[in-house]
Amino acid sequence: MAKRPVKTKAKPKTSGASKTKAAPSGAGILQSKALRFLVIIMIVGLLGLWLLLWQGLWREIPMRTQSQMLNIKQGQTYSGLIAELSEKGQIRFPVMAKIYQRLFIHDTLKAGVYEVEKGTTVQQLLQMLSNGKLAQMNRVLVIEGTTFGQLRKRLDSDPNVTHTLKGLDNQQLLKKLEINQPHPEGWFAPDTYYFAKGETDAAILKHLYRTQKKVLDEAWQKRAPNLPYKNAYEALIMASIVEKETGIPRERQDVAGVFVRRLKVGMRLQTDPTVIYGMGDNYKGNIRRQDLLTPTPYNTYTIDGLPPTPIALPSKASIEAALHPAAGDSLYFVATGTGGHVFSSSLEQHNQAVANYLKVLRQKRAANANPAGVSP
Hints:
By secondary structure, this protein is mainly α.
């Protein structure tokens, strides 16, 4: 029996176009690449902007201590302050800080002393400075070489200090402060201090006294051998003389060396600052020959040895110099007239140095009298 042919369905023919997707056109490829490029550019831009914001605003201000005092002077501007902090390396990309201040801070910069704690960002600092109520610290500057009387006047005139000592004489003041010293001169450390507004003058002076006493005690324990001082107080007296005699740091030990050698050989100190201190209100800006001959407890031209008390508030550097005087044989010194002093070991050398100094003074007077250099 013959087999019947089996019918099969014919598969429809498919063209090559129906088997694969249509290839994108050249324009489509370019658009896709451009889109990806724009996305990358936007991401890079956003990352760059974030980096600028972080460095310029959100980065912590670098500090070596747990806090620092920022003194804002009257009339100082945000722009000037930002530039100043940028120069110190505490603000990076200062333009970001300036833009932020222009956009979000419209108050003027408030003068005062601000305590900036470690961890504070530039943005937080700018916000803090816009609130003058946060300027709670009062800056008290005690200049080295000033007298205790000048320090009292400064405190008495400070509106940010609560005054509890006005009207008291020195002995009453020392008693109230519970300071067991015969005289206040020299016992208060010169430096820049920061106190809360409204702090009492008594608390401020106690702090300055404790600071100075600690400096003196520590320096006394480490003093050089064979010094002609009976006690640390005499070293404080010498330090005050050194402080008044030179404002040049490298000369302090040399000046102390001259005075220490004079004490050892029994020479009088013959130092003008002690004469001036002894004159008190009678000093009018210059010393006459008669003043050198007029005895006072402080006139080291007429008394032997040290004066009875310090004559100023000496710095730590001057205390160190008094207790570590420079070695040598110089017994005299005089100003050069152009800055600094000339140190001499003999009276002959000293007299020549004095003559040179007087010559410089005459030349200066002549130049001041004829500043244009025109011949008379």
